[in-house]
Design brief:
OB fold (Dihydrolipoamide Acetyltransferase, E2P); 5 strands; 2 helices; alpha+beta; globular; about 35% helix; 5-stranded mixed β-barrel; single chain
Length: about 130
């Protein structure tokens, strides 16, 4: 006897597999903090708010460590964790900035919070500030 999947069954399996993959990605994004402490829960809530705001505005926010600042070129090298909304894992990357003046006062070793958006195929830092 031949067994074949119906179109409905195949579609249901594809949807289930896709949803499972998305759930794992969300779990990985939120795995870097402890939900059992007030600080961990606060960080979790901030991440959720940032993800929602970023999706609404087309911008994506993250925390990073400044590795290098090049004011003349209007670029900054940042080491950041995963940014799911941008489809990026944790990495070190050189970003152009929207305005060179944004780099004033920043130096290698600074912890920052930044927002970036995709412009003409490249991610541009649209806002950056020192993190506390």
């Amino acid at each position: 006897m031949k067994t074949t999947l119906s179109t409905r069954t195949a579609l249901a399996l594809a949807v289930a597999m896709t949803l499972g993959t998305g759930t794992m990605a969300v779990a990985q994004t939120h795995a870097d903090h402890d939900h059992s402490t007030p600080e961990g829960m606060q960080q979790h809530m901030q991440l959720i708010q940032q993800e929602q705001q970023g999706k609404a505005a087309g911008q994506h926010e993250a925390e990073a460590l400044v590795r290098k600042v090049d004011p003349a070129a209007g670029k900054i090298t940042l080491r950041h964790g995963a940014i799911p909304g941008m489809g990026m894992g944790a990495m070190t990357m050189v970003y152009a900035v929207k305005d060179k003046a944004m780099l004033d006062g920043l130096k290698a070793g600074d912890k920052v919070r930044f927002a970036a958006e995709k412009v003409d195929g490249s991610y541009i830092v649209t806002r950056i500030e020192k993190a506390e």
